[in-house]
Amino acid sequence: MLLVTSRIDGAWCLVERSLSSSEDPLRIASDAAFEACGVRGSCRRLGQVASRRSEEPAEVVVLRVSREARRFPDHGKRRHEWLSPLSASERLSGQPELMALVANLGPADLPEAPPDARPAPWRRPPSQPRVVCLDLDDTVLSRGDEPLPGAVAACEVLVERGYRLVASTARLDPVWEGSPRASKIRARLDEIGFPIAELSVDVPPADLYVDDKGWPFDGDWEALLDEVRGQLARSRRLRLSLALAGCLMNPQGGPLHGAREAHAELRALGVERVVSLGNFRPELATPAQRVRAAEAWLAEAGIEPSRVHPGKISSHLYVDTHAYRFEGRWQDALPAILGRLA
User: Are residues 16 and 150 in the same domain?
Assistant: First the structure.
């Protein structure tokens, strides 16, 4: 059981929130739990006890935790600790009804576990070559088109391990200001000695996407929304690239748990939402066919992106279950990348 401390006096307590008669106690309890200690899950009513705040009894709601966020509104403002029900009840001194309710809490009191929100990993068909897709700017090349330290050697290791390297860059997007010709970029990569097999305007199916703006999505929509809100606090405009396969679509072909609601929240925040194809329907012959299939699926799922784009478009975040966020040092990145690929 998770206990938190009060922001007022530091005493151990359960999260408490006032609500009006028109509000849903389960929704309010869920939101309060996230704000106080960053947990999400399914809720059910447990009973009533005397309230510390009013003469009216307080409704006690139990939440079965399925996810814990790294960042949440009260992070750093409260302490929280996982305890057994009996140990938790002992810390709630002065609240005899609540102490008894907590001490007797058992598995039968918990709500059913929510649907698994974690996307299943994409599996490459045996006939498809092993591919690592690399971003160019600030990942393998500096802004002056010089190789980042260790980048060439890291690429050579990946090729030795049997991976085909594809560079996908927003520089090839026709709307990118000052977009150079692909031949110029290709010539520079060859001059440096990068063993890159293909320079692509599209985002191809791949085992891993390495990008300095990559966001490895693990099903935690709240963590992503927190990141988005943080970036919006620094910039009025934000463009998000979301991989359809894994971020919006589950392995069974339906919408991923929470995807519709999160997408609606992104829209309400004013975020430009670009759906990228990545590992979606790689068997289709052309990008145009993949785009049409994606648009049909999104319409049926009730998800309305700003647009669907087959290639790499300049974005603030690239969100994908197979993303790896490159943070500037290839000597640190290569072992982690090989671990992800293992």
Answer: no
The region, left, alpha or beta by phi > 0 then psi within -120 to 50, assigned to residue 323 is: beta
pTM reported for the whole predicted model:
0.64
The residue ranges of the chain whose pLDDT is under 70 are 70, 113-125, 127, 173-180
Q: What is the pLDDT of residues 85-114, one digit of tens each?
A: 888 888 887 778 888 888 888 878 878 765
Nearest in space to 208 (alpha carbons), one of 158, 173, 160, 262? 158
Cα–Cα distance for residue pair 319/101, rounded to 1 Å: 42
Per-residue pLDDT at 6 = 87
In this structure, the answer to whether residues 271 and 173 fall within a common structural domain is yes
Structural domains in the chain (count): 2
Residue 113 burial (C-beta neighbours within 10 Å; 0-12, 13-18, 19+): exposed
State the CATH number of the domain containing residue 81.
Answer: 3.90.79.10
Structure confidence at residue 177 (pLDDT): 43
Give the pLDDT of residue 43.
86
Predicted pLDDT at 86: 86
β-strand 2-5 against 80-82: which pairing, if any?
antiparallel
State how far the Cα of 131 lies from the Cα of 46, in Å rounded to an integer. Answer: 51
Question: For residue 259, which of 270, 272, 249, 274 has the smallest C-alpha distance?
Answer: 249
213 with 138, same domain?
Answer: yes
Q: Are residue 40 and residue 164 in the same domain, yes or no?
A: no
Among candidate residues 69, 68, 73, the one with its CA nearest the CA of residue 7: 73
Same domain? 98 vs 239: no
Instruction: Please write down the long-range contacts of 18-23, taking CB distance under 8 Å and 24 or more positions apart.
Output: 18/53, 18/54
pLDDT of residue 174: 56
The pair of three-digit structure tokens given for residue 329, joined into one six-digit string: 């040092």
**Whether 210 contacts 317, CB under 8 Å:** no
Nearest-angstrom CA–CA distance, 137 and 176: 13
> What is the strand order of the sheet 208-211 is part of?
198-200, 164-168, 131-134, 208-211, 323-325
Domain that holds residue 150: 131-341
